[in-house]
Amino acid sequence: MASLENGFPLKRTPSLLSSSSSSSSTNGRLFMQRSRSRITRFFLLEKLDYVLWIWTAATFFFVIILFQAFLPSSVVDKSGNSGQEVAEVLRTNRVLGEIGELDFGEGIKFIPYNLMSILERKRERYNSSLIAPAGKRAAYINPKIALVVADLSSNDALQLQIVSITIALKEIGYDIQVYSFQDSHAPSVWIKLGFSIKMVSKENPRVDWLNYHGVMVYSIESRPVITCLSQEPFRSLPVIWIIHEKSLALHLNRYITTNNTKIVNDWKQAFGRPTVVVFPTHSLAMMHSLLDRGNYYVIPGLPVEAWRARKQLALYERKEPRVQMGFESEDFIIAIVGSQFSYSGAFLEHALVLQSLAPILHEFSSASRVKLGILSQNPINTLEVIALKFGFLKDNIYHFGSDEKFDNFLGVSDVVIYASFLEEQHFPSILVQAMCLGKLVIAPDLAMITKHVDDKQNVYLFPRENLGILTLILIQVISNGKLSYSAQNVASASKDLGKNLMVSESIEGYALLLQNVVRFPSEVTKPKDVGEIPSNLKNEWQWGIFENTTNDNHFSAITSKIVSIVDKIEEKWSLNQSKISTNISQMEDEAFFSINWAEVRASEKIKTRKRLLDEELKDRTDQFHGTWEDVYRTVRRAERNKKSLHNINDWELERTGQTLCIYEPYFGEGTWPFLHSRTPLYRGIGFTSKGRRPEEDDIDASSRLPILNSGYYRDALGEHGAFYALANQVDRIHKNAWIGFQSWRLTARKVSLKKKAEDILLQTIESRKYGDALYFWVRMDTDTRNPLGYDFWTFCDALNAGNCRFAVSRALRKMYGMPMEWNSIPPMPADGNSWSVMHSWAMPTRSFLEFVMFSRMFVDALDSEMFEEHNQSGQCYLSLTRDRQCYSRVLELLVNVWAYHSARRMVYVNPETGAMEEQHKLKSRRGQMWIKFFSLSTLKTMDEDLAEEFDSYNQSRKRWLWPHTGEVFWHGTIEKERKRRLSLKDKKKQETKDKIKRIKSRAQQKPLGKYIKSIPKLYADNSTNKYTTIGI
Length: 1032
What we know:
It is a single chain. The chain is α/β, with parallel strands linked by helices. Among the domains are: 142-301 and 507-545, 3-Layer(aba) Sandwich (Rossmann fold); 305-499, 3-Layer(aba) Sandwich (Rossmann fold), CATH 3.40.50; 658-934, no CATH class. The protein has 39 helices and 25 strands. Helix 13 (304-316) runs parallel beside helix 18 (429-436), helix 18 (429-436) packs across helix 21 and helix 34 (804-816) crosses helix 35 (845-873). The longest helix is centred in the middle third of the chain and has 40 residues, at 554-593.
């Protein structure tokens, strides 16, 4: 099953069942056809739950008719001897071979096809990438795994499994860092084992997960960690989420019933983040099938039953359990158990087992000595009638519908019979508990059972096609009303086996899973093979560590906590929904009922009067009409000012006037807790617009440098991309004389600049003590990736699959146009001093622009060598595996090469105290610096040549990275821009002249006549009293 999108109920209907045997006789098929009558199918489908008494009555009569028709009238011949009795039992039980055609076949299976195929493809890609040219592993650091355990304070089965797996992983080469929440307390078990334990906040776990190569998360209560790992830049980190609780699965049914899709989608999103979600049983994976995103996996072996039996036996040492339950010492107690799945044919399986138990009643002086306990979800009436039919007494039959009530009965029983013929995928947990309690287990020869036990060594097995063997086994193991000596030895052996059942599958399963999902960089040592785990660590749980520890709360405490975390998420969504509805209603009320209409009318009158007055004044004043170019220029200037001066705060104004500004590049919400907030000295620069912090004046690097919108180059350049974004038209965003950078990962490691060091650094810069220098505060010799103290080029090779020198040599050869046989690299001597790592340094802004000029050409040459293969296949000879950050590790160290060979002074600043120490003094560099290659004049000439080439032959190169990493400028750019403006100006003048010429040359029609408008003049004629009009 690749992905179960619809929830799978644990009720097993007949339509899902298949035949268990295909070789039965014709009589068996006829019997099958007769038994699968309309009445049988009717009540087996369980569609009449609302008339349960009718269903029970129908079942009762059907069972009576069935056994009267096909079973002999008596299975016990009291008059015959024992040999004849056994023969009669075998003869009567042959009917089971015919009933084998009933619905006892294979059930629904969970097979992670999608996940298995994905892991197989990753393994093939990994193996193929190992054949990459000249790649080699330095292998001097152990792989680091973060282990998140929600609660370390409880000693239970989960702690036993975690400790056993952790010890085994540590043995084969993993370094384990344990994390837990602050409301938990680390028990003495973890402290004695020497594991490092760190407490984090449950609401906001602030951890730099990139320090680890993989993360293992235990229980649903650790959901906040999964949420944190779902954010960038942690989304590519391999995560294994181990879930052993049922509480969420029980809630899912209610969410579906109430159509609460938002909570379901929220959990789906959480379950989709881990690389693998691991369950201890296949049934638990099926219960969570609604949330399956194709990443489910099953590793059996959670010792819950063994731990429960251990506590139960310790309790029995203090008091007699049989006396408390009302049993006598002479009673022989038989427990009948079945599958955890509920399916329609289960009661028939119990009935046939009860038939096989009937002959053992002779072995006792009285049938009242045989006590029968049945663990079944089927109604007791049917099974009780069947048991009475075979001679068992009504008062001696006990029915249990849940495991909790059945535990005490199981603890006092003598024999445990597994009465289910369903082929499941894992060993029945109820049998594990019975074996750990030292009970004699009798079970059918199912594949899931025979895989872990041996017949007559630690259990008794019988063929499910012939239950007569079950009767023979019972007769052999019972002697004088008690278990025989040989049966007691078998039960004792089963106790030792059940205590550590499936340990090797669990430990080897997790070790193998880690090897399949974790990618190991070149500096990391590959762990030992799974087969090299010592036998004492993989064949038994670490019981000795927990010998003197007890925890009476056990599972109840865990279950209550898990239920609470699930309820918290449900409550959060319910609260959000209620807030939304409340806000909508409040907004409607405020919109319609809080309006003062009188004030609104008065305000409208004032606005109208003011508008009319402004219009009159506008007509009376002279208006200046500028050109359209002035208008466009004014609009553009206003837009720039609007964008650059929005929400100016005090720290922004203070930053403008200070000497240094330190930028913190980041990508994604996962880095937010480690960034400085609202401080004038620091400013964030985010690689994406969506991942920027709200209410902060962070810079959007992707808007300043569009190449960073490409995911390929954003990953390949890493934090180096922030340098290019700032250097591109730097005057618009950075107005300080000095510029610095600091990785957010330093804050996570608590090794960033402290307040005292910041003040001393600013004072030193202002005093110009070291002049044009590179100040850095993270040393290469103290980096966790360099525990052996390698020199510069050896360390660079270790991080880049042994090919750092080769890549740098090829890039410099292409960059400077050197001949093919040239393979030199700039010397970086090991003189006892150190170098800068992790992009944490400060330098003058003009020096920064010079470094960016060199870096852009170097990256362009490096990219031209690697892009085709890396972009198509993902392979890069700077990594042993497919790595998106191909050459970002080389760029991390590039500033040292430039600073050393451009004769910059290099000063180390202690991040705690601010104490400064100059590294690689200029006198010691004489004769080793490549000044000709790194001088400003050389770099500027090369930059101008590239800019001229881009202007002249822009279409000749289909893909060229250099023009997209910053400004393209040379001395001809100004002249070219001036000519362009003059050309546009001349074009506009010519267009105007042409327009005037067209108007003048337009043909005009001659007028047909002349019309003169009359001018009226009135004359008063007193004599005639008439008006006279003079006009033409």
